[in-house]
Amino acid sequence: MLTSVDPDLIRVLGDPLRLRIVTLLARETLCTTHLVEETGAKQTNLSNHMKVLREAGVVETEPCGRFTYYKLRPEILARLSDQFAALAESARTASENKRACP
Predict the structure, then answer these.
(1) Are the C-beta atoms of 30 and 67 separated by less than 8 Å?
(2) What is the pTM of this model?
(3) Where are the alpha helices (DSSP H) in the chain?
């Protein structure tokens, strides 16, 4: 069964800074301070992007004293990957299908 790709998740990951954050979090759990250092973003801007990623379910938070650590939820990315894989498979099997012009 062909599934459609989640357009909201594509929009969330389509932002270059958010994609950079996801790439960093794929390597290790980081706090806001680390993410500011790694990305060069201002803390308020970074916090706004983290809110978008949290609300989309891409990351989860882990309080640690006065710091907040962020951890990637790999199952969300795996689901998106599966959706793209299904589209690719559909394209492979449909390559010979051609609708006739009227």
Answers:
(1) no
(2) 0.83
(3) 7-13, 16-25, 32-39, 43-55, 74-93
Lowest average pLDDT, out of 6-10, 30-34, 72-76, 95-99, goes to 95-99
Phi, psi angles (nearest 5°) of residue 27: -95, -35
Residue type, 25: L
Any idea how long the chain is?
Answer: 102
Nearest-angstrom CA–CA distance, 24 and 29: 8
Task: Give per-residue pLDDT as tens, 28-64.
Answer: 999 999 999 999 999 999 999 999 999 999 999 999 9
Q: What is the Cα–Cα distance from 100 to 87, expressed in whole angstroms?
A: 22
Q: What is the DSSP string of 64-75?
A: ETTEEEEEE-HH
